[in-house]
Amino acid sequence: MIKRLLIVALLSVVFIGCKAKKRTTHSKGSAQKTVAVKKRGNQNRYETKGLYPLPEDTGKFKKFTISSVDEYIATFSKIAQYEMKAYGIPASITLAQGLLESGLGKGDLTRRTNNHFGIKCHKGWQGDYDFHDDDEKGECFRKYNHPMYSYRDHSEFLSSRARYAFLFNYKANDYKRWAKGLRQAGYATDKKYPQKLIYLIEKHRLYRFDKGVKLNSAIASAEPKKYVSKVHVVRKGDTLYSISRRYFISVDEIKRINKMNSNNLAIGQELTVKTAQSKK
């Protein structure tokens, strides 16, 4: 386990780009689909990120297996607190999402990719990736060489996207509002996602890890993020789902902004989408 997270030395390991290709097989029932996977060079942009650089990769997690919920919590609670201090996301929320999205650390995607939060590639992702069946077959998911990079990417993912900005106006220990807000922002399609997070937090007392964490003053006193509005004109073939993916905004948020009561669209209809003014 990582003994000391609060270090200031930069990582010395530089991951060299790789052009090698591998193949992965996905199965559903008796049918199988083989997909060529291109491996991108991992630039490891986390090693010098912000005021809280990550510690050195000791390689411990390469053969690490989680046998219980308690072991998962013991393993990742300090990392979650570290990320809370740096980004203001409740450690309880981070741990609950990690538990839920990773299948308690035992899920196939997590074991293959160290992806503990089910974060898909999305536009602009330059790291390694792999394919996995989720909402659709063979979707692209981010891949990390170490779980702590997954935790850092989770922090950056939430803090750099406009649709999650309102969450950071909540108190860092208000896990219930954060849980409901994540669903509202479109992190997951499961309508019971907030209840599942709250259940995990309360069952395993994850809220105890929110206590005593002193937030980075730049985050604790941050002004609410400003927005600029962008208008999308509906074209033939557009759906709320396709528009949400294009602008990285949830369907629910599009409907809320535009005061829509249904999913029906008309060609030429103007929809307001919200994007951050200063996006990382």
What does this structure look like?
It is a single chain. The chain is of the alpha+beta class and 280 residues long. The chain folds into two domains: 46-220, Lysozyme (Orthogonal Bundle), CATH 1.10.530; 227-276, LysM domain (Membrane-bound Lytic Murein Transglycosylase D, Chain A, Roll). It contains nine helices and six strands; from the N terminus they run E-E-H-H-H-E-E-H-H-H-H-E-H-H-E. Strands 1-2 form a two-stranded antiparallel ribbon. Strands 3-4 form a two-stranded antiparallel ribbon. It has a two-stranded antiparallel ribbon with strand order 5-6. Helix 1 packs across helix 2 (91-101). It is globular, with a radius of gyration of 19 Å.
Which helices and strands, and how do they pair?
Layout: E1 21-28, E2 31-38, H1 69-87, H2 91-101, H3 108-113, E3 129-132, E4 139-142, H4 147-159, H5 175-185, H6 193-203, H7 217-220, E5 227-233, H8 240-247, H9 251-257, E6 270-276
Antiparallel strand pairs: 1-2, 3-4, 5-6
Helix pairs in contact: 1-2, 1-4, 2-6, 5-6
